[in-house]
């Protein structure tokens, strides 16, 4: 599918739920899915499901099937066949090529360890050490040697150069408490030179999400507050790739007893496990206070 393949044909809004099937869904996903569905229905919108399975090792067919089963059990019903990002690598490559032609990306050979060693102490909004820019000014000879030798490297976006091209950016955020849309100033520099593609996963969350939201004609993005600051990176990519600007709503997160965000990596209790314990989908809805 090409980046501009499917713009909105009518004025019907388009919402989407875009989980990553790299583990089991938990209550946090249930909340996000059902809130998105509720808002889509209120708006008379189309509701799409996209499986963000670019990590083809962790996104196993079993995980994908489990996710579809859980969503169906929950009563999440989407319009149209789901999109699988793993079938869309050509579109991400095309987008990356466009950024290469604009001379806005560069190859980076730094390992996690290299980055730690050269770290300045600055952190990105997720708390990871900010990339110190080690490979940004690599000379052409070294770069070409790198390509010739087929060594693994990642493509990074030169954020400073990118924002010089885009100028200051904002996004439109629906504030649930105020009940109105606010304009938020994007601060992409706080992420530094983000990775857009790697050798073994030739794309990234940031690149594929903007490509697919545009290709699917998504007008409204509802997702957790953990992705609030990432929106700044998405706005830069949308502007550079001439993609339309959706409206955002970043909802509160479901927290565990210690006040921490639920997560697959912490093995938060899954929907499948709750179902096995005899929970019904209605009880989950009640628990999430969504009706
Ligand atoms: N796939 C992402 C996740 O599961 C969400 C992507 C998005 O909604 O933008 O965290």
Structural class: alpha/beta
Please, what is the average pLDDT? 92
> Largest sheet, described in full?
5 strands, parallel
Taken as a percent bin, the fraction of beta residues is 15-25%
**Shape summary:** globular
Radius of gyration: 20 Å
Number of strands: 10
User: Which consecutive residue ranges, at least 5 long each, have pLDDT under 50?
Assistant: 1-8
The helix count comes to 10
Cα-to-Cα separation, first versus last residue: 36 Å
Strand order of the largest sheet: 3-2-1-9-10
Order of helices and strands: EHEHEHEHHEHEEEHEHEHH
Q: What ions, cofactors and ligands are bound?
A: glutamic acid
What percent of the residues sit in helical stretches (DSSP H or I)? 25-40%
Overview of the structural elements:
35% of the residues lie in helices and 15% in strands. The model is unreliable at 1-8 (pLDDT under 50). The chain is globular, with a radius of gyration of 20 Å. The protein has ten helices and ten strands. Strands 3-2-1-9-10 form a five-stranded parallel beta sheet, covered by helices on one side. It has a three-stranded antiparallel beta sheet with strand order 4-5-8. It has 291 residues and is of the alpha/beta class. Residues 18-20, 52, 209, 223, 227 line the site of glutamic acid (GLU).
């Amino acid at each position: 599918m090409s980046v501009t393949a499917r713009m909105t044909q009518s004025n019907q809004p388009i919402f989407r739920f875009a989980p990553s099937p790299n583990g089991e869904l938990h209550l946090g996903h249930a909340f996000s899915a059902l809130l998105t569905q509720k808002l889509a229905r209120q708006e008379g919108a189309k509701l799409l499901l996209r499986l963000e399975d670019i990590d083809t090792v962790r996104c196993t067919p079993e995980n994908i099937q489990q996710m579809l089963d859980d969503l169906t059990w929950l009563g999440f019903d989407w319009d149209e066949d789901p999109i699988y990002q793993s079938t869309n690598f050509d579109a991400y490559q095309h987008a990356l090529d466009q950024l290469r032609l604009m001379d806005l990306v560069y190859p980076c050979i730094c390992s996690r360890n290299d980055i730690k060693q050269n770290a300045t102490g600055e952190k990105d909004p997720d708390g990871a050490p900010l990339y110190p820019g080690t490979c940004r000014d690599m000379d052409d000879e070294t770069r070409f040697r790198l390509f010739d030798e087929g060594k693994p490297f990642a493509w990074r976006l030169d954020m400073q150069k990118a924002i010089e091209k885009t100028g200051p950016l904002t996004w439109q955020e629906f504030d649930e408490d105020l009940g109105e849309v606010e304009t938020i100033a994007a601060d992409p520099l706080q992420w530094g030179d983000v990775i857009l593609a790697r050798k073994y996963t030739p794309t990234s969350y940031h690149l594929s999400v903007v490509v697919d939201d545009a290709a699917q004609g998504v007008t409204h993005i509802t997702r957790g507050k953990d992705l609030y600051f990432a929106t700044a990176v998405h706005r830069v990519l949308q502007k550079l790739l001439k993609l339309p600007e959706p409206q955002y709503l970043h909802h509160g997160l479901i927290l565990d007893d210690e006040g921490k965000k639920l997560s697959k990596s912490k093995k938060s209790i899954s929907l499948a496990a709750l179902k096995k314990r005899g929970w019904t989908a209605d009880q989950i809805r009640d628990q999430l206070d969504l009706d």
